[in-house]
Amino acid sequence: MTSQDTPPYSPQTLESEVQRRWQEKQLFRAVGDASGEKFYCLSMFPYPSGQLHMGHVRNYSIGDAIARYQRMRGRQVLQPMGWDAFGLPAENAALKHGLAPAQWTLDNIAHMRGQLQRLGLSYDWSREFATCTPEYYRWEQWLFVRLWEKGLVYQKLSTVNWDPVDQTVLANEQVVDGRGWRSGAAVERREIRQWFLRITAYADELLSGLEHLAEGWPEQVLSMQRNWIGRSEGAEIRFPLATGEGVVKVFTTRPDTLLGATYLAIAPEHPLALAAARTQPELAAFLERCRHVAVSEATVETQEKEGYPTGITVRHPLTGQPLPVWVANFVLMGYGEGAVMSVPAHDQRDFEFARKYGLPIQVVVVPEGEEIPSGILEQAYTGSGRLVHSGIYDGLDNETAKARITAAVAAAGLGRKTVNYRLRDWGISRQRYWGTPIPMIHCPRCGAVPVPEKDLPVVLPTHYHLDNPRSPLLDDPEFHQVPCPQCGGGARRETDTMDTFVESSWYYARFTCPDAAAMLDERAARWLPVDQYIGGVEHAVLHLLYARFFNKLLRDVGLLPADGRHDEPFRRLLTQGMVLKDGGKMSKSKGNTVDPQGLIDRYGADTARLFILFAAPPEQHLEWSDAAVEGAYRFLHRVWRLVHEYGQTPPPLPATLSAEARDLRRLVHQCIDRVSSNMDGRYHFNAAIAAIMELNNALMKVPGEAQADLRAVLGEGLRSMALLLSPFAPHIAEALWQRLGQEGELSFAPWPNADPEALQSSTVTLVIQVNGKLRERLEVPADADAGSIEAVVLAYPPLQKHLAGLSVRKVVVVPGRLVNVVAQ
RNA sequence: GCCCAGGUGGCGAAAUCGGUAGACGCAAGGGACUUAAAAUCCCUCGGCUUUGGCCAUGCCGGUUCGAGUCCGGCCCUGGGCACCA
User: Fold this and answer.
1) Which of A224, A279, A492, A642 has the fewest beta carbons under 10 Å from its own?
2) What domain range is A295 assigned to?
3) pLDDT digit string, tens, across residues A122-136
4) How many Cα atoms occupy the beta-carbon half-sphere of A65 within 13 Å?
5) Are A277 and A283 in contact (CB under 8 A)?
6) What CATH code is carried by the domain that includes residue A818?
7) Is A433 in the same domain as A491?
8) Residue A272 has pLDDT above 60, yes or no
9) Nucleotides of B under 7 A from a protein CB
10) Helix axis angle, A629-646 relative to A605-614, nearest 10°?
11) ipTM of the predicted assembly exceeds 0.85
């Protein structure tokens, strides 16, 4: 009971001992029998870059806190970990260091696995896999062929960034200020034939499915996905070419403004533009300039808006009037029809373009109750109103006009009502080496032929050492020279590999049955959906949309039951904020990373985890601070000391408690209550940890020679603290648990419940406001009713000076909280 | 450019519902203990103030008895934009 008995808190030895015990007992192997309720807790698996970074530590500390909490709540928990192991950095590293990408990747995995294990995360390591192994990606190839058979895979031309010096395709990230990052050459756009997955066939389901996620997903992410899918109702309208042959198709959400269309704008890659350029050198030069803009939407949308007339004329579908066709550098070939009708009076971008090039502006909608504007417009009017200058449609409100004008165009055979999506099909071809080979063979006679199932997997050769960025598969006849599976003649194997988003689109399902002899087996249906998914907000759209898409594909090829419970992969989503340093994202390119290894070496895993969970709520950005770590470390020291100085198994509580002991016990149970409510769904770990710190502060004040009842409550408090702490700092919690003489595994010990009786208090302190300003405080019985409170307050002597010269007009009583006296 | 967030003391933050703004922690200052230091413990800690109070949650306005919280407009910072993962 003296401080001499207290051994030093040395996290390094303590943590490795505890971890060894966990491992020997295989404590965190997911059991998944039907005897209990399952909980699948998944953190986004990492790319094995070589070093764990703070974002990982945060992500996995959050996930483990949730998994451990659920385990203590009695659930059968599955919490796996693996590696998103294909990708560009491996090729870059191989080029730089003269290694094979496979070797670099496997070395990194070995190192990072050690780092993760040092953190004491309660993973079922028996399920670990890396996506770059044939055992994993073979099923991806298998699914690709199924999708090909179902017509959900196809080829089409699409644009890539081409580095003319390195003779290779560049990722958007590799284009810096319009130039290739290695060569410095100005990039070009190049159209090549690529493989696509028909995600647009699922657009409506991906959109409506968001409604079922409303409870478990952040509104922010749902909104981003909704906007990304971008369903819009409108009309397809055909403008006949003045020459009489052919039409230009456009999509518009504003058919009501059709009579205000004064020109058409088409994409630089539009076939008409290309055709016109053949006879017009200046137009060709303009298109050539457009070819040197990188393909990313951000680049296209932020460049100076420019256009050039094509000399082509179309006829207005209703009036027959001639309209000029312009090429505009901001019209995207990949969206809609690659052409838009321009209504400068009612679209701000069209307005600016028309002003710049002196094109006519025709007002056709005016706000209800206003006159047709005379003089020069200052800006486009994009709101609703009634139609003008629109012939027989004049006077209609514009919503009615949408339907009427669409019908008129349809009657003329020049259009129809239609739904358009912003979502485009998913281009999965990569002209890269380090990825899953696309299992197709190009035969000059039979066309594209899938690799027969018996020949799967198409194994990616791993012996290459890269000396230039070009994919070695292109130059390896052993890989690409194959007979056609259909006719047996000479054919060429596809050398494109898959987008790495494909691997991460179904790994969550494979974790349920990592050794299955098929892509998935019946275990998937039991464990899925993931009950809690945790990862960075930066994945809010792409990864999370692709994974939702794949889940539906898995269902539709019969690998998941179509029972309505398996339509979505992730029941609940927690998007963690980024770990920032100096206000910006920690990243290698910015050189502002903080290595978590140093933190763990110095303070131990418990401190690292506790600090990172305490510093900010999970969904918020976390601004890094070295100094604040000390605080978490000191706190653990204080808890350690307190428990060791107590040094006994807590005795049972006596039947009656002194007032002092009751007050302390109330604090203990308030803490249990606060921690629990911050764990259940809210995941405000910072507030939960703060509550534990407060409890510890209160327990430290209990004198060593206290009465027996007080010491019994102290023991209850310490025992509770070990339980409450274990999701955040599991190693020290184990040691405290043992020191308090507790039996059984802390990891599976039942989470404590707050005793409602202990929470009761006989009085409450009310705040007294006058006109909303805090003036006095007053203690009243907890069960006092509003009427008696009002009477007591109005008669309360110290209040009178605040009411001098005023007449009371109203008294607002909020029981248990405050009284507001409204006086004049 | 488009879509989505965030902005509270010197710093990270707290405040389930509209009800005491700043819990908890960091940093700082003062003190105790010590031969000394470290560690530990105790106290102070938003600003102004005539010590009555007044002002404060990015800025401007609104709703309300009462707004960090709700509504409208703006400013700044961060994330995503389909080949970084």
Assistant:
1) A279
2) 232-421
3) 999 999 999 999 999
4) 34
5) yes
6) 3.10.20.590
7) yes
8) yes
9) 1-6, 11-16, 19-21, 23-27, 39-42, 53-54, 65-67, 77-85
10) 120
11) yes
